[in-house]
Amino acid sequence: MEVRFPSDERPPAWKIAFLQYVIAASFLVLLVGYWRLQIGQHRLYLDLAERNRIRNLPVIAPRGRILDRDGRVLADSSPAFSVLLMRETLADLSPERRAGIARGLQLDPEELRATLQRTASLPRFQPVLLKQAATLEDISFLESHRVEYPELDLIPVQQRLYPKQQVAAALLGYVGEVPEEMIAKLGSSYRPGDVIGKFGVEAEYNQVLSGRDGMRRVVVNSRGQEVGVLSTLNALPGNDLRLTIDLDLQMAAEASLGDRAGAVVALDPRTGEVLVMVSHPSFDPNDFAKRIDPKEWNELMSDPMKPLMNKSIQAQLAPGSIFKIVMASAALETGTVTPDYIVNCAGAVTIYGHLYHDWVFGKRPVHGAVNIHKAIRESCDVFFYTMGKMLGIDKIDYFARGLGLGAKTGIDLPSEAPGLIPSPEWVQRVFKHKWYAGETISVAIGQGSVVVTPIQVAHTIGGIAMGGVFHRPHVAFQDQLRALGVDTPDTSPHAFPLSEDTLAAVKSGMWAVVNEGGGTGGAARCPGIEISGKTGTAQVVSQTLENSEKNSEFKSTAWFVGYAPSDKPEIVVAALVMRGEHSAVAVPIAREVIKAYFDKKLGPKPPDNQMETQARVLSQLRPAIPPKQLPSAYNRY
Amino acid sequence: MSRRFRMSDIDWFLLGLALAIAIIGVVEIYSTTLHSPLAGQYKKQIYWILLSCVLALVASRLDYHMVLEQTPWLYVGSVLLLAGLLVAGHSIAGTRRWLQFGPMSFQVSEIVKLIIILVVAAYFAHRRTKAVTWGDLVKLGIFAGIPAVLVALEPDLGTALTFIPIVAAGVLFAGIRWQHIAVLCLLGILALPVGWHFLRPYQRERLMTFVHPTQNTQSSSYQVTQTKIAIGSGGFWGKGLGNGTQSRLGFIPVSHADSIFAAYAEEQGFVGTLLVLLLYFAMLLRLLDGAQMAPDRAGAFLLIGLAAVLFFQVVLNTGMMIGVLPITGVPLPLMSQGGSSLLFTFLGLGLAMSVRARRYVN
């Protein structure tokens, strides 16, 4: 190709001008575009750039420990990791990514979807908790998939740890994720995934135990790796909480109740401090510290023996003969009878045209001539049937309530049950019929509609033993709570004065129960310690049904309440064995706790075999009672 | 046509503009790669600028007619080189663009751009009609099309696309009938579905992202979103040198190369953007001015071709950063890191100076 270059012709000027205009117009458009981004929307994009590079990571405050009165650890925190979803740079998680995350973290895809939906409305700078207690596999998945899933992050957290496992589980309660209603509440500072106490001490003193979470502002690169820290707001750890519980006594009580269903409560009647609180069957609160799996939860919920219930404060059962202490106090205090008043017990008595049997009827020799001392000692039903008739329901009701039954004791634990003392007004209101005089006779021996809780029994008998001074039971030391700035309820004791004579007669009756021949609680005798108390065997169904059905479900409730020393009580113990059949099974439990108390107080420090005891207790604590049909009395729970 | 050299033969204004943009580019490359594995790349860029500058001065001393006479050989040689690359070239990151000279690697397609400019200039210098014929269009289409297809196969669609404005500007200045434009537009529209068929998945995604920018934040529109965030967050004065978080923390991909303008706009703000765009604008006007004063058709077409391709690249690159144009792998001339692109641009400018230097001669 031969190229020649004539120089005659130039490009027309209008075409150059046209090109100049095109270039000028294009640059103008570009400048407008840059102007809009850099000046018009500068704030928006600056904000986006900051969110790109800055992550706000929560620093989880460790929850305070729960200690026994000697400072032994009942609930602790151990380091763990949680998986977070950082949503700042993320529009929405596509279904494929969601499935990938669910697979990698072994989460239920449906549950993950629900979690994301629930948290969709939260501000984007708040990360979403995807998994608590990440396993080693989860952590290695995250580390190896940082580039694919830059939106996932791990943060160190504190996992609740209950070193004594099932011991005092119902008292301590458990922790779990904060429920949605609480997050939704106006002014709530909770975020999804926050851990709060859900039951027991953990719930009651959640404010004390939970600290304030901190925040770390870190700089990350485009792959989500941390490259620097901007600021750190340290977490404020929660406060330790010391309970009035004595772990040594608690262990003794757990061991002596064993695998039977029931409850043991021990109080210091001088102060109301709770020394022991056992509820069996128990559960392991450690299972709740990780996310509890639905199967396990269903098992716990459907167990007829209700392991998740604190029977010490929630089981409402007929007190049986324990109620006779209230009857005796009322009869003497009102002057209805004197201590010398004699009733002749022939094994049964006819009142209002109906024959009422004594518990000895057909099994043992009749009680014969009975004064109030012997009536308490031998738990004579006929004597108290007679007292019931003489007192009438109104006076019984007045004294029972005055002595602390049929109402919450006000213990510092959630979900306390009030129990029930029936009155004509109550019957009218609930059953819409008039009070039958015969009902009074049943109430007189702690049957009928009367129901109480173990904590009420210990509270009432402890108060009577103290001469009519009732201290509100509590599990947390009041001084400590005041020091922590927690509002404490009125701590002044409630007084229901009984005359010296009444107290002397009732207390001597309770002394005789344990210490005199013929007493129903002789098994509570313990060398070197003077114990007083009262037994109770309460039917859960009518006598005829109990005789016809030999099912364990209909077996009577066994009660014993004892205190020691008899003259200047320092400890009162209420023991309850459900389906115990006879009070005799409850008596040794209370004795063991009282013995442990005085062994510890008086004796030299016992060799440290605590670990061994603990192992034995734990081995006995596996729920052993097979699920069966619910007996009628449980419906009252 | 040999003359004595005079200082005024060199277009100091044009050279100054080019060097200013290139130095701004070096500073930004330094800033954005400072704490990355690419730290130190700016030195390489400086060496390339110096080399290119020297070659530009040499080119400005050449008579461009002499260069144009070599066009057929250069063209045949470059097509063979491109074909050879496809057959035997080293594959780097899945593409065969690079020719290796010891420690230096060189992107052949950048130099082919210059050769296409020469081809168009030579063609129209030779052919003087009032308007191009279908025959002209077909011939030019084939001349530019063969290397374009070879480059597109590397694959480097962005560079292949830059051949279009060269031919288009040449044809426009040679004179084209409206009927031809209409038919070409129609053909272009009809070719769209066929072209779509030949696009690679990532290229389709980029186009779709351009059409629906908000649909997909994770992958391809992620790039646009992040460059927009970088530019917007720069504000009026910018975050300052070395303070661009978007580029330094890796949110902008290849912030030293194709995306350098986003990194620059983040750190220097609208003021910086305005400055660089004005420099480019002045450079393009200077080239068109040169075309106006060129002593002959050949020189004018050479300058117009160069101006067209630089204009196309600057607008496409800066436009795609703010999402007004789809993402294409086109470097920003003079600023983006890369020796081949620098060399092409400076050589082109050297030839432009050669044309300008002869404006008073007849």
Largest sheet features of chain B: 2 strands, antiparallel
Helix content of chain B: 55-70%
> What's the β-strand tally of chain A?
21
The rounded distance between the terminal residues' Cα atoms of chain A is 108 Å
Question: What CATH architecture of the largest domain in chain A would you give?
Answer: 3-Layer(aba) Sandwich
Main sheet overview of chain A: 5 strands, mixed
What is the average of the pLDDT values of chain B? 86
> What is the CATH third-level topology name of the largest domain in chain A?
Beta-lactamase
Q: How many strand units of chain B? A: 2
Q: Key terms for this structure?
A:
heterodimer, A: 637 residues, alpha+beta, Penicillin-binding protein 2a (Domain 2), Beta-lactamase, 2 domains, 5-stranded mixed β-sheet, 25 helices, disordered C terminus, B: 362 residues, mainly alpha
Compact overview of the structure:
The complex is a heterodimer of chains A (637) and B (362). Chain A has 637 residues and is an alpha+beta fold.
Could you explain how this protein is built, in words?
The complex is a heterodimer of chains A (637) and B (362). With 637 residues, chain A is an alpha+beta fold. Chain A folds into 2 domains: 54-242, Penicillin-binding protein 2a (Domain 2) (Alpha-Beta Complex), CATH 3.90.1310.10; 260-274 and 306-606, 3-Layer(aba) Sandwich (Beta-lactamase), CATH 3.40.710.10. Chain A has 25 helices and 21 strands. In chain A, strands 2, 3, 4, 5 and 10 form a 5-stranded mixed β-sheet that branches. Chain A has a 5-stranded antiparallel β-sheet with strand order 12-11-21-20-19, with helices on both faces. In chain A, helix 15 runs parallel beside helix 22. The longest helix of chain A has 28 residues, at 13-40. Chain A is elongated. Chain A starts with 12 loop residues before the first helix and ends in a 17-residue tail after the last helix. Residues 618-637 of chain A have low confidence and may be disordered. Chain B is mainly α and 362 residues long. Chain B has one domain (7-357). Helices cover 69% and strands 2% of the residues of chain B. Chain B contains 15 helices and 2 strands. Chain B has helices at 12-33, 41-61, 64-69, 71-88, 108-126, 134-152, 157-161, 163-174, 178-198, 201-211, 220-234, 245-248, 260-293, 297-321, 339-357, and strands spanning 98-101, 104-107. Chain B has a two-stranded antiparallel sheet. In chain B, strand 1 and strand 2 (104-107) form a beta hairpin. In chain B, helix 1 (12-33) packs antiparallel against helix 2 and helix 5 (108-126) runs parallel beside helix 15. Chain B is globular, with a radius of gyration of 20 Å. The termini of chain B are close together. Chains A and B meet through helix 1 and helix 2 of A and helix 3, helix 5, helix 8, helix 11 and helix 13 of B.
